[in-house]
Amino acid sequence: MNIESARRFLLSLPHVVETRQWGDNLLFWVGDKAIGGKMCAVVDLGAEGAAMGGHISYPAPRERFAELLEIEGITPAKYLAHLSWVSIHRWDVFRTAEWQNELRTAHALTLAKLPAKSHKILALPKKEQKRMIAEQKAKAT
Question: pTM of the prediction?
Answer without folding.
Answer: 0.89
